[in-house]
Design a protein that fits this description.
The protein is an alpha/beta fold and 181 residues long. It contains seven helices and four strands, in the order βαβαβαβαααα.
């Protein structure tokens, strides 16, 4: 049963000292200087890979671990699947070794799900409004009617598909799509 700490500060100018002092009793501490918004937090990834069944992950503050409630819930769910406990030094109510801590995390999970539903709803509303205004989504078509006519006339003139690819710069699939029209 290993006590593992994770400390993070957002920028190079900040100091990890306060967090490291609070995590002194840990058997191993993973630390990094990276923004929480940055999804590529290598020390966190290493920490999560290091943790084993029966271990406890300790952080000083909840915002040092996760970017959002949904991110927190994802991480804590991963920990629970591995049989790893989770505690926050500065907030003893967040402790998966106690019934109350599990309740608090359950509530946070519901909030995360609620946030995701609201975000998805807003996104769909925005997309619908944009479509109503005539906004087109996705990549602009490259194979325009004039190019289709050009490809078909090249083929009718005896050009092979590789020749047409070389002349037009279109992919083989696009050439065949144009010839099929």
């Amino acid at each position: 049963m290993t006590l593992v700490g994770y400390a993070r500060v957002s920028s190079v100018g900040q100091s990890l000292d306060v967090q490291l002092e609070k995590l002194e009793g840990c058997d191993k501490v993973f630390k990094e200087k990276r923004s929480g918004v940055d999804g590529g937090r290598p020390a966190l990834r290493q920490c999560l890979e290091f943790l084993r069944d029966g271990d406890t992950l300790l952080v000083t503050k909840i915002d040092r671990l996760a970017r959002s409630t949904s991110d927190l819930y994802r991480i804590v769910s991963e920990l629970a699947q591995k049989g790893v406990s989770f505690k926050v030094v500065d907030d003893p109510s967040i402790d998966t070794t106690s019934r109350t801590g599990k309740l608090v995390l359950g509530i946070l999970a519901l909030i995360a799900e609620f946030e995701n539903d609201i975000r998805r709803e807003r996104q769909m509303d925005g997309i619908a409004k944009a479509k109503d205004r005539g906004v087109k989504f996705g990549r602009k078509p490259q194979l325009l009617p004039d190019k289709v006519v050009e490809i078909q006339s090249l083929r009718a003139g005896g050009a092979t598909v590789p020749d047409i690819i070389q002349r037009t710069g279109f992919s083989k699939a696009s050439i065949y799509r144009a010839l099929g029209r």
